[in-house]
Design a protein that fits this description.
- It is a single chain.
- By secondary structure, the protein is an alpha+beta fold.
- Helices cover 19% and strands 33% of the residues.
- The chain contains 1 helix and 9 strands, in the order αβββββββββ.
- The strands form 3 sheets. It has a 3-stranded antiparallel β-sheet, with no helix packed on it.
- Strand 2 and strand 3 form a beta hairpin.
- The longest helix is centred in the first third of the chain and has 33 residues.
- The protein is elongated.
- It starts with 8 loop residues before the first helix and ends in a 7-residue tail after the last strand.
């Protein structure tokens, strides 16, 4: 017979199996919980600005395509991706950096390649056109203006961040 505070064999076996099962369940669930929570806990870099190797004094009023590399992280895989921007000074002397990705189907636009509209960005895929400030020409294929890059000037050099929707884009 069992005494008042002693554990029976049945209770001991029950506690042992429940404890072992609990540890096994935790071992199976922890990687899944970690996978779900890890992106939320990860902090973004303080500055994602990239030096595009362009000095402020070299920028003119004519848009010039400047290519640069950005470090990209996909899960645990890190790679360098080449991106591009059209950089120029507008009529107010402000530096503008536009994304060359057409908002219609993602083709690459170019500056001044359409002979009938030499002072516009032109997308050869579906004859899309954009004014110099990146706003889409009404009646052409693009549905929104070109994106504008975040920008900083440090030590006379241009640094670009992520492309953001154009301020004149409809929300």
């Amino acid at each position: 017979m069992a005494k008042k505070n002693e554990i029976t064999r049945r209770q001991f076996l029950n506690y042992t199996l429940m404890g072992t099962g609990g540890f096994m369940a935790a071992g199976i669930l922890m990687p899944m919980v970690r996978f779900a929570i890890d992106p939320i806990l990860k902090t973004e870099a303080a500055s994602d600005m990239v030096d595009i190797d362009l000095k402020v004094e070299d920028i003119t009023s004519e848009p010039v395509m400047k290519k640069f590399k950005v470090k990209q992280v996909d899960g645990w895989y890190e790679s360098e991706v080449e991106q591009a921007a059209f950089v120029y000074k507008n009529d107010d002397g402000e530096i503008v950096a536009l994304s060359p990705i057409c908002k219609h189907l993602g083709c690459t636009v170019d500056w001044g390649t359409n002979p009938s509209h030499p002072d516009e960005f032109y997308c050869p895929c579906h004859a899309g056109r954009y004014y110099k400030d990146g706003v889409n020409v009404p009646g052409t294929a693009p549905i929104a203006p070109l994106d504008v890059y975040e920008m900083e000037i440090r030590d006379g050099k241009v640094f670009l961040g992520k492309p953001l929707p154009h301020p004149k884009a409809k929300k």
